[in-house]
Task: structure prediction
Amino acid sequence: MNLLMTVMRCEWRILRLDPALWLVLMMILGMVAYALHNGENLVERQAAAVAAASVEEQERLAKLRKGLADIQSGKVAPPDAPFRDPRNALFVGGGSAATHVALPAQPLAITAIGQSDLYPATLRVSSASKDTFFFADEIANPAHLLSGSFDLAFVLVFVYPLWILALTYNLVSGEREQGTMALTASCPVQVRTVIIGKLLVRAGIPMLVTGAAVLAGLAFIVGGDLASAGQALAGLALAIIVYGAFWAVLATAVNGLGRDSAYNALLLVAAWIAVLLILPALINAWAEARYPSPSRAEMVLAVRAASAEADRERDAALARYQDEHPQGEELRRGSYRERTLRRLTVQLAAAGHSEKIMADHEAQLQRQHALAERLAYASPALLMHDALAGIAGTGRSRYRAFFAQVDRFHQEWRAFFISRAQAERMLTTDDYGRFPRFAFVDYHGSGTLSRIISALIGIGTPALLLAVLAARGLRRCRVA
Result:
């Protein structure tokens, strides 16, 4: 142990004279600060959007309540247009009293944007079909979303390995090229102990500084909320250590091949490209080929076509009825009751068509995602990103739970208003107080923790295999 500490102190004295170390440290501090700043801006924009939606909803409901009170007191006459009537259950539930639902942010949401840039901050749930609020807003230009976001997850998954590789690619080859490896081998010390000490310093410094920079940034931005995120912080620290160890051991294994530094650098860059770019692309391509699903645009067009077809079928049925019953003047004039019933019929028919299309599309996507999650164990980069998204509360599993609860709430909302519309019952002041309210039940803890642990085991397993290969390679490594 004393020898190892001596080697580490000596390596630190040598390394601190290398400009590459200080360049790496400046990049760590700058990129971590910028990434956390971007994450903070996104979370603040989402929070502002949710707050604005809540205020708008309260103002809208207050206006409806006032209109209803004026009608009930006789101050104003009931409107002829059903969509302006605060008593009309169908039109109130379908638009004028639609409620906003949102996925609450986790304390470490600024660390990974995850799925949050694919969905709006709030969904305006109404009694219409799901497509009317699931596809109502476009978050950003899809071409921009393809390039991803510069968040902490991007820094840790893509850039963090480069910092470690920059200091460890010539761990053994540099010593051999400078002639110091032969000198070390001539001393009464084990070369393996010297290499381990050098590795702990060269890989440990970027890992330690990265973890400290992330923790300091989170403490500065998140503040007191970190007290409730102890488990997430522990998971984040463990992810940084395990993922960093994978790349450090990989660099050691490459050094164990006994080639020169240029060869090591080229091979490690190729490994970085394969692990972070090629493997994830192949996994996604295989999942999409195995379970192909239409694009979101195609699904939206199919849903819209189903709604239009339901409207045409209703128009055709109404035309036939008018031809067979010429005395039906009320239908021909389009009375208040007829317009409400027509909207109700079309809405129910459109909902049946569109929700079947959406359910088929969602089932195919779930099969695709399940296959991709299984194949992700072949790519430490995908596992690391999934772990970070889970820690931030922006992963696919949490959004899946949120949308499942939104779907149940949508059914509850529709049942409340559709049942009253079918019974031709007008809303009262008491009904306004009984409107369904959404409350997200967060099952984020246990399920996400197991997912994070599984991802870290998936990263740690190949790291252990690489460590075995590195140990065998270093035993055979020549010293000159």
